[in-house]
Design goal:
two-stranded antiparallel sheet, 7 helices, about 15% strand, globular
Length: about 200
C-alpha cells in the first residue's frame, strides 16, 4: 500500500505541474497546446483517483490489523464522491473540489464574464447538436475574455454546465449541448438558483 501511495503522489505532482504549465500556455494564447495539456492533466487526475480506489480494494480484500483504517478510507472515498460543488459569490462562479492528496477542499474561481463567454461558445459550437472539442471551446472563448483568464476557469464553467445537465461529455469525442434553444436564458435562470458562497 505504501508503494501505491508513493505512485499516487507522483501522479498528482505531475498533474499539478501540467496544470500550471497549461495556465501559462493559455496566457500565451496557444489554445491548442493549452487544451492538450488540460486533457492530459485531467487524465492524470483520473489515474490518481484510480490509484485511490486500488487502496480501498486492497483494504477490502486484505484486512488491516487496525480495523479503524478501513472505515476512514471508506469515509474519505464517500466524501470525495460528493464533489464537485458549485456556488456563486457576487459576480463569480466557485467550483469546490476535493483533494485526495491533502484530504481537504480546494476551489477554482471563475468570473461571470468567463461563464458568459463559455455559454456563448457552447451555443455556437453546439448548434444542431454538433459535438465540439475542449480545444475548439478554449479557442473560441479565448477571443471573448481577457488574456489573464485561465483555461481552468473555462473548465470550471464547463463542469458546472455538465453538472446541471446542459452539456454532455462524450468521452474523447468531445461535448455537446443538451439544450439547443435558449441556452443563455436557461443558464441565467440556473445561475440565480445557485447557493451563495459562505466564507470559511
Amino acid at each position: 500500500m505504501e508503494t501505491i501511495d508513493k505512485a499516487k503522489q507522483i501522479v498528482l505532482k505531475c498533474e499539478e505541474d501540467l496544470s500550471k504549465l497549461g495556465a501559462d500556455t493559455l496566457l500565451a494564447r496557444d489554445y491548442v497546446t493549452a487544451a492538450k495539456l488540460a486533457d492530459v492533466a485531467q487524465a492524470l487526475g483520473r489515474l490518481a483517483a484510480g490509484l485511490g480506489s486500488a487502496i480501498l480494494v486492497h483494504g477490502a480484500t486484505t484486512p488491516s490489523a487496525d480495523p479503524a483504517v478501513r472505515p476512514a478510507a471508506a469515509s474519505t472515498f464517500r466524501r470525495a464522491t460528493e464533489y464537485p460543488k458549485f456556488y456563486r459569490r457576487g459576480d463569480g462562479l466557485i467550483r469546490v473540489g476535493w483533494s485526495k492528496k491533502y484530504k481537504e477542499e480546494y476551489t477554482h474561481k471563475s468570473p461571470k464574464s468567463v461563464l458568459t463567454a463559455t455559454v456563448t461558445a457552447v451555443a455556437a459550437l453546439g448548434v444542431g447538436g454538433k459535438r465540439f472539442t475542449a480545444e475548439e471551446l478554449l479557442s473560441r472563448v479565448g477571443h471573448g475574455i481577457d488574456a489573464e483568464s485561465s483555461a481552468y476557469q473555462v473548465y470550471a464553467c464547463l463542469a458546472w454546465l455538465r453538472s446541471i445537465g446542459l452539456v454532455q461529455q462524450h468521452g474523447r469525442e468531445g461535448y455537446s449541448s443538451l439544450r439547443l434553444n435558449g441556452l443563455p436564458e436557461e443558464v441565467e435562470r440556473r445561475w440565480q438558483t445557485l447557493p451563495l458562497w459562505q466564507e470559511r
